[in-house]
Amino acid sequence: MNDDSAFSLPVAALMYHASSHGADPLLAEFARELQAQGWRVHGLVQYEIVPAGGGRAARELLDLASGRRYALSQDLGPGSRACSLDTGALAAASQVLRHALQARADLVIVSRYGLAEAAGGGFANEMLALMSAGIPVVTLVSASLADDWRRFTGQAGAELPVSRPALQAWFDRCVARAPKAAQTQGAAP
């Protein structure tokens, strides 16, 4: 679904094209602001650590609730062109999303819907569980995976530009649609 004005699941993808540059900081700042307002925001945001001497950037996930970091990049040595994703770290980080489900978070941020999720791995099971529970979920999706994302959500999710106003409007609609009892758990924005 390309129109973010109507959706049947409280799930959204910030769609990016050539690079996600700017999208990760946007999600991190949005989470911090909502947490400061009293919303229970859980999940994972991604950071890149660029080595001082140059070379391939390392990726980390930050748990928004605890501050714990998960190193996603394996050191494969200089000149390596292979995928450096540490699937063990990804599996360990998935517990953050399972905890968010148990805690009935007001919003869960999932760093990416990527190739691993499109193949049924990565955070796919956790994302489906959160969506099934009606917990709002937002993630980043490369435009190259848009068709996979649409299949994954049954075309029921919103697709948003990488924009703070679009993200805020989507979250406001999720809050407005939530049962009144659920709204009293978070602070009114």
UniProtKB/TrEMBL annotation:
Highest rank taxon of the organism: Bacteria
InterPro entries xref list: DUF2478 (IPR018912), P-loop_NTPase (IPR027417)
One Pfam family named in its UniProt record: DUF2478
Name of the protein in question: Molybdenum ABC transporter ATP-binding protein
Organism: Bordetella genomosp. 7
